[in-house]
Amino acid sequence: AQSVTQPDIHITVSEGASLELRCNYSYGATPYLFWYVQSPGQGLQLLLKYFSGDTLVQGIKGFEAEFKRSQSSFNLRKPSVHWSDAAEYFCAVGNNDMRFGAGTRLTVKP
Amino acid sequence: ETGVTQSPTHLIKTRGQQVTLRCSSQSGHNTVSWYQQALGQGPQFIFQYYREEENGRGNFPPRFSGLQFPNYSSELNVNALELDDSALYLCASSSLTGLFYEQYFGPGTRLTVT
């Protein structure tokens, strides 16, 4: 069965610092992988997706993620965090019936 | 281009009642999926509709049902509400592009069951 684990419930980083959010997945075949961001009171916005090809994918807002099949991971990164990046981040696997992780809440310190 | 809209924004129901939530798909999308997001959790897939037929279902009981209309808008109906049904209900519309569904989410309906 497909599943997603986000090991970090809450992460705090200083503005301008780099960021890495972890995601591990379990999936029987080549996975479709996604990162979404959710701000308070908002729906989910797609940051980036992977389903084949180059294992380093670029997304919106300066985010990127790297697919590592050997580690079953799809970690999200950003080289320099902005205060506006504070939100909840969800990793998801699947296609028409996506499975989401429990989310990582990002706090950005001034 | 109009995005995904959901109504109502919030509502409060009593245990045992029935509720209907509505979703209008993004223009050009023929598929709609519904998710339940409990507080502090990630969204959980309820079901998907494609061209007015159910096209996949998650681990939710039959009292969760849906409809999709010819204009691709959708309803989620929940009967015999339970306290645990309190959650944010998200609708996502999509179209199949190649092998991939890119889902666009609405802002959600916050349901509180007392």
Can you tell me about this structure?
The complex is a heterodimer of chains A (110) and B (114). Chain A is built from no helices and twelve strands. Chain A is an all-beta fold. Chain A is globular and about 40 Å long. The N and C termini of chain A lie far apart (41 Å). Helix content of chain B is 0%, strand content 54%. In chain B, a hairpin with a 2-residue loop joins β5 and β6.
Q: Could you give a short description of this structure?
A:
Chain A is mainly beta and 110 residues long. Helices cover 0% and strands 51% of the residues of chain A.
Helix content of chain B: under 10%
Structural class of chain B: mainly beta
Distance between the termini of chain A: 41 Å
Number of strands of chain B: 13
Distance between the termini of chain B: 37 Å
Q: What value does the Rg of chain A take, in angstroms?
A: 13 Å
The major beta sheet of chain B can be summarized as: 7 strands, mixed
Largest sheet of chain A: 6 strands, mixed
Structural class of chain A: mainly beta
Morphology of chain A: globular
Low-confidence stretches of chain A: none
Unreliable stretches of chain B (pLDDT < 50, length at least 5) are none
Shape of chain B: globular
Q: Give the largest interface.
A: A-B, 24 and 27 residues
The oligomeric status of these chains comes to: heterodimer
Radius of gyration of chain B: 13 Å
Helix/strand order of chain A, N-terminal first: EEEEEEEEEEEE
User: Which range does the strand content of chain B fall in?
Assistant: over 45%
Tell me how many strands of chain A there are: 12
Number of helical segments with 4 or more residues of chain A? 0
